[in-house]
Amino acid sequence: MSIDFYAAFVIGLMGAGHCLGMCGGVAAALTMGMPNQQKNNRWHYLLMYNLGRLLSYTIAGGIIGGAFAGVATLSGSSYALISLRLFASVMMIILALYLGQWWQGLVKIEKVGHILWKRIAPKANTFLPLKSPMAALPFGVLWGWLPCGLVYSTLSWAAVSGSLVSGSLVMLAFGLGTLPAMLVVGGLASQLKQLLSNLYFKRANALLLLGYGIHTGYIAINQIM
Fold first, then answer.
1. Alpha carbon 155 to chain centroid, angstroms
2. Count of domains in the chain?
3. What is the pTM of this model?
Protein backbone atom coordinates (compact mmCIF):
# COMPACT_ATOMS: atom_id res chain seq x y z
CA MET A 1 0.00 0.00 0.00
CA SER A 2 1.30 3.48 -0.90
CA ILE A 3 2.80 5.66 1.80
CA ASP A 4 0.10 8.23 0.91
CA PHE A 5 -2.49 5.95 2.51
CA TYR A 6 -0.55 5.69 5.75
CA ALA A 7 0.10 9.44 5.77
CA ALA A 8 -3.62 10.10 5.19
CA PHE A 9 -4.44 7.86 8.16
CA VAL A 10 -1.96 9.77 10.34
CA ILE A 11 -3.54 13.08 9.30
CA GLY A 12 -6.93 11.86 10.44
CA LEU A 13 -5.47 10.50 13.67
CA MET A 14 -3.41 13.58 14.49
CA GLY A 15 -6.25 15.92 13.64
CA ALA A 16 -8.09 14.66 16.73
CA GLY A 17 -8.42 18.09 18.31
CA HIS A 18 -9.76 19.60 15.11
CA CYS A 19 -12.18 16.70 14.62
CA LEU A 20 -13.50 17.03 18.14
CA GLY A 21 -14.01 20.74 17.60
CA MET A 22 -15.70 20.40 14.20
CA CYS A 23 -17.72 17.18 14.52
CA GLY A 24 -17.41 16.18 18.16
CA GLY A 25 -20.31 18.37 19.20
CA VAL A 26 -22.45 16.78 16.50
CA ALA A 27 -21.58 13.27 17.69
CA ALA A 28 -22.27 14.22 21.30
CA ALA A 29 -25.60 15.82 20.37
CA LEU A 30 -26.43 12.75 18.32
CA THR A 31 -26.20 10.45 21.36
CA MET A 32 -27.80 12.91 23.78
CA GLY A 33 -30.69 13.64 21.44
CA MET A 34 -31.71 10.06 20.80
CA PRO A 35 -34.85 8.58 22.38
CA ASN A 36 -34.40 7.51 26.02
CA GLN A 37 -35.21 3.92 25.21
CA GLN A 38 -32.35 3.91 22.70
CA LYS A 39 -29.62 5.21 25.05
CA ASN A 40 -28.12 1.75 25.44
CA ASN A 41 -27.73 1.58 21.65
CA ARG A 42 -25.64 4.74 21.38
CA TRP A 43 -22.75 2.79 19.86
CA HIS A 44 -25.00 1.72 17.01
CA TYR A 45 -25.86 5.35 16.33
CA LEU A 46 -22.23 6.45 16.51
CA LEU A 47 -21.02 3.68 14.24
CA MET A 48 -23.67 4.38 11.60
CA TYR A 49 -22.98 8.13 11.79
CA ASN A 50 -19.24 7.56 11.31
CA LEU A 51 -19.86 5.03 8.55
CA GLY A 52 -21.80 7.76 6.75
CA ARG A 53 -18.92 10.20 7.16
CA LEU A 54 -16.42 7.70 5.79
CA LEU A 55 -18.69 6.97 2.86
CA SER A 56 -18.74 10.68 1.92
CA TYR A 57 -14.95 10.95 2.23
CA THR A 58 -14.48 7.86 0.06
CA ILE A 59 -16.87 9.12 -2.61
CA ALA A 60 -15.22 12.56 -2.66
CA GLY A 61 -11.76 10.97 -2.98
CA GLY A 62 -12.93 8.79 -5.86
CA ILE A 63 -14.48 11.73 -7.70
CA ILE A 64 -11.40 13.92 -7.29
CA GLY A 65 -8.90 11.14 -8.02
CA GLY A 66 -10.78 9.90 -11.07
CA ALA A 67 -11.42 13.39 -12.47
CA PHE A 68 -7.81 14.51 -12.30
CA ALA A 69 -6.52 11.19 -13.62
CA GLY A 70 -8.89 11.57 -16.58
CA VAL A 71 -7.75 15.15 -17.25
CA ALA A 72 -4.11 14.07 -17.16
CA THR A 73 -4.80 11.22 -19.59
CA LEU A 74 -6.77 13.39 -22.03
CA SER A 75 -4.23 16.22 -21.99
CA GLY A 76 -1.40 13.82 -22.71
CA SER A 77 0.86 15.99 -20.56
CA SER A 78 2.40 15.19 -17.20
CA TYR A 79 2.98 18.81 -16.26
CA ALA A 80 -0.56 19.34 -14.97
CA LEU A 81 -0.30 16.35 -12.65
CA ILE A 82 3.21 17.34 -11.53
CA SER A 83 2.01 20.87 -10.75
CA LEU A 84 -0.88 19.43 -8.78
CA ARG A 85 1.50 17.21 -6.81
CA LEU A 86 3.55 20.29 -6.02
CA PHE A 87 0.33 21.95 -4.79
CA ALA A 88 -0.41 18.84 -2.70
CA SER A 89 3.04 19.10 -1.10
CA VAL A 90 2.32 22.72 -0.15
CA MET A 91 -0.97 21.61 1.39
CA MET A 92 0.89 18.93 3.38
CA ILE A 93 3.29 21.54 4.73
CA ILE A 94 0.42 23.88 5.66
CA LEU A 95 -1.35 20.97 7.34
CA ALA A 96 1.79 19.97 9.26
CA LEU A 97 2.15 23.54 10.53
CA TYR A 98 -1.47 23.44 11.64
CA LEU A 99 -1.22 20.06 13.38
CA GLY A 100 1.94 21.17 15.16
CA GLN A 101 0.14 24.36 16.24
CA TRP A 102 2.79 26.57 14.62
CA TRP A 103 0.47 28.32 12.14
CA GLN A 104 -3.33 28.34 11.83
CA GLY A 105 -3.58 29.33 8.17
CA LEU A 106 -5.42 26.11 7.34
CA VAL A 107 -8.51 27.42 9.10
CA LYS A 108 -8.89 30.11 6.41
CA ILE A 109 -9.07 27.44 3.71
CA GLU A 110 -12.17 25.98 5.38
CA LYS A 111 -14.12 29.10 4.48
CA VAL A 112 -14.10 27.97 0.84
CA GLY A 113 -16.57 25.17 1.59
CA HIS A 114 -19.10 27.25 3.52
CA ILE A 115 -21.02 28.14 0.36
CA LEU A 116 -21.82 24.48 -0.30
CA TRP A 117 -22.37 23.73 3.39
CA LYS A 118 -25.10 26.36 3.66
CA ARG A 119 -27.13 24.24 1.24
CA ILE A 120 -26.37 20.90 2.90
CA ALA A 121 -26.79 21.81 6.58
CA PRO A 122 -30.59 22.32 6.48
CA LYS A 123 -31.01 18.89 4.87
CA ALA A 124 -28.86 17.27 7.57
CA ASN A 125 -30.93 18.85 10.33
CA THR A 126 -34.11 17.29 8.98
CA PHE A 127 -32.90 13.92 10.32
CA LEU A 128 -32.88 15.17 13.92
CA PRO A 129 -33.85 13.83 16.33
CA LEU A 130 -32.70 10.46 15.06
CA LYS A 131 -35.38 7.79 15.27
CA SER A 132 -33.12 4.78 14.69
CA PRO A 133 -29.46 3.85 14.06
CA MET A 134 -30.16 3.59 10.31
CA ALA A 135 -31.23 7.24 10.31
CA ALA A 136 -27.71 8.11 11.54
CA LEU A 137 -26.21 6.81 8.27
CA PRO A 138 -27.60 9.47 5.89
CA PHE A 139 -27.08 12.04 8.64
CA GLY A 140 -23.39 11.10 8.72
CA VAL A 141 -23.18 11.15 4.91
CA LEU A 142 -24.36 14.76 4.85
CA TRP A 143 -22.12 15.83 7.74
CA GLY A 144 -19.19 14.33 5.85
CA TRP A 145 -19.34 17.41 3.61
CA LEU A 146 -18.77 19.82 6.51
CA PRO A 147 -16.05 22.36 5.50
CA CYS A 148 -12.80 21.03 6.96
CA GLY A 149 -9.22 22.02 6.23
CA LEU A 150 -7.99 18.51 7.07
CA VAL A 151 -10.33 17.03 4.48
CA TYR A 152 -9.34 19.57 1.83
CA SER A 153 -5.64 18.91 2.41
CA THR A 154 -6.09 15.17 2.08
CA LEU A 155 -8.24 15.63 -1.03
CA SER A 156 -5.23 17.25 -2.70
CA TRP A 157 -3.46 13.90 -2.28
CA ALA A 158 -6.45 12.05 -3.66
CA ALA A 159 -6.26 14.34 -6.70
CA VAL A 160 -2.74 13.16 -7.54
CA SER A 161 -3.29 9.53 -6.57
CA GLY A 162 -3.65 8.52 -10.21
CA SER A 163 -7.05 6.85 -10.24
CA LEU A 164 -10.57 6.74 -8.87
CA VAL A 165 -9.75 3.72 -6.69
CA SER A 166 -6.57 5.21 -5.25
CA GLY A 167 -8.30 8.51 -4.52
CA SER A 168 -11.06 6.64 -2.71
CA LEU A 169 -8.56 4.65 -0.64
CA VAL A 170 -6.63 7.78 0.36
CA MET A 171 -9.79 9.39 1.72
CA LEU A 172 -10.95 6.14 3.34
CA ALA A 173 -7.61 5.93 5.16
CA PHE A 174 -8.08 9.51 6.34
CA GLY A 175 -11.58 8.72 7.56
CA LEU A 176 -10.38 5.67 9.48
CA GLY A 177 -7.78 7.86 11.15
CA THR A 178 -10.51 10.18 12.45
CA LEU A 179 -12.46 7.34 14.07
CA PRO A 180 -10.59 7.20 17.42
CA ALA A 181 -11.28 10.89 18.10
CA MET A 182 -14.91 10.58 17.09
CA LEU A 183 -15.44 7.44 19.15
CA VAL A 184 -13.84 9.09 22.18
CA VAL A 185 -16.87 11.36 22.15
CA GLY A 186 -18.96 8.24 22.48
CA GLY A 187 -17.16 7.13 25.62
CA LEU A 188 -13.84 5.43 24.83
CA ALA A 189 -10.95 5.62 27.28
CA SER A 190 -9.95 9.15 28.26
CA GLN A 191 -6.30 8.06 28.06
CA LEU A 192 -6.63 7.77 24.27
CA LYS A 193 -8.01 11.29 24.06
CA GLN A 194 -5.14 12.58 26.18
CA LEU A 195 -2.56 10.88 23.96
CA LEU A 196 -4.05 12.25 20.73
CA SER A 197 -4.23 15.74 22.25
CA ASN A 198 -0.69 15.70 23.69
CA LEU A 199 1.25 18.59 22.12
CA TYR A 200 4.56 16.74 21.92
CA PHE A 201 2.92 13.68 20.36
CA LYS A 202 1.15 15.89 17.80
CA ARG A 203 4.30 17.85 16.97
CA ALA A 204 6.37 14.70 16.50
CA ASN A 205 3.89 13.46 13.92
CA ALA A 206 3.59 16.95 12.41
CA LEU A 207 7.35 16.95 11.82
CA LEU A 208 7.08 13.60 10.01
CA LEU A 209 4.32 14.99 7.83
CA LEU A 210 6.32 18.17 7.21
CA GLY A 211 9.28 16.09 6.05
CA TYR A 212 7.02 14.06 3.77
CA GLY A 213 5.54 17.24 2.30
CA ILE A 214 8.97 18.70 1.59
CA HIS A 215 10.11 15.42 0.04
CA THR A 216 7.01 15.28 -2.18
CA GLY A 217 7.60 18.86 -3.32
CA TYR A 218 11.26 18.12 -4.04
CA ILE A 219 10.31 15.20 -6.28
CA ALA A 220 7.72 17.31 -8.13
CA ILE A 221 10.23 20.14 -8.73
CA ASN A 222 12.81 17.67 -10.07
CA GLN A 223 10.23 16.26 -12.49
CA ILE A 224 9.49 19.76 -13.83
CA MET A 225 13.18 20.55 -14.23
1. 8
2. 1
3. 0.81
